[in-house]
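Reminder to self: tokens first, then the designed residues, so the page reads top to bottom the way the pipeline ran.
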């Protein structure tokens, strides 16, 4: 996992209260929690525990495909291909 503490010098970071600083985050779509997502969430929780910070997830809604490939069908979350 990448340590974002190197970015702590940015002005927006100084405006955050101490209680709002620091977290381990998983970033993704999480369109159904399959084994890959479970592994990512587990790794995020472990890293949060190691760092002593909260764990969280940043998710995209709607799916980014709606913006980047609007002409393509949406992917189902049940594993079937469109």
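Designed residues (82 positions):
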């Amino acid at each position: 996992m990448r340590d974002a503490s190197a970015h702590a010098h940015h002005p927006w970071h100084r405006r955050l209260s101490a209680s709002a600083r620091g977290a381990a985050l998983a970033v993704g779509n999480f369109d159904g929690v399959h084994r890959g997502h479970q592994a990512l969430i587990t790794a995020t929780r472990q890293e949060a525990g190691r760092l002593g910070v909260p764990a969280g997830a940043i998710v995209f809604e709607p799916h980014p495909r709606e913006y980047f490939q609007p002409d393509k069908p949406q992917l189902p979350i049940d594993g079937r291909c469109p």
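The first strand starts at residue 24 and ends at 28.
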